[in-house]
Amino acid sequence: MRTRHTLLTVSLLCLLPLQVWAEACIIQAESARMDIKLCQQNRSIPPHLFKSGFCQPTLAGQKTTVTFAEHCPSGAFGVCRNAQSGGMPYQQDIYYYGVATDARYLKPACERQSKGVWLDNPPLR
Q: Taking CA atoms, which of 11, 44, 50, 105 is between 20 and 30 Å from 5?
């Protein structure tokens, strides 16, 4: 009976969405002309790939800092849900902070390039 209970528990844990083990990275980039802040919330990227690849931007001429968190902070003006990058099958949510009028460029990129769904003013966590 104990083995059956353990198998049931393990099976139920496998059904939980990846959000239970949430991880996010907050990326801030500064240059003489602009500041950028976004947050990538992992949905299905293997953790080692998320930290070593997806959260390691290289932006020429900009000072970049990356901070890891459990979830993206509130206050984003938009989010690209289920975004994919580089033809990879993995998904993430990308939260954008700062200048809300940038949504006019970010929304088409989200929907066409990243195959995501754009949400204005996402709900607070």
A: 44
Rounded to whole angstroms, the Cα distance separating 109 from 111 reads 6
Least confident among 9-13, 107-111, 120-124: 9-13
Nearest to 93 by CA among 19, 23, 42: 42
Averaged confidence pLDDT in the chain: 82
Say yes or no to pLDDT of 120 above 80.
Answer: yes
Q: What share of the chain is helix, strand, coil (3-state, %, to 5)?
A: 30, 30, 40
The dihedral through the CA atoms of 45, 50, 52, 54 has a sign that is: positive
Q: What is the pTM of this model?
A: 0.78
CA atoms of 36 and 19, how far apart (whole Å): 25
Residue type at position 9: T
CB 28, CB 37: distance < 8 Å: yes
